[in-house]
Amino acid sequence: MTTEEIARAFLVTPATLAQRIVRAKAVIRDKAIPYQVPVSQELSGRLGAVLLVVYLVFNAGYSAEATGAGLSREAIRLGRLLLDVLGPDLLPEPKVMGLLGLMLLQESRRAARSSGEGELVLLDRQDRSLWN
Question: What dihedral do alpha carbons 96, 87, 69, 101 form, nearest 10°?
Answer without folding.
Answer: -40
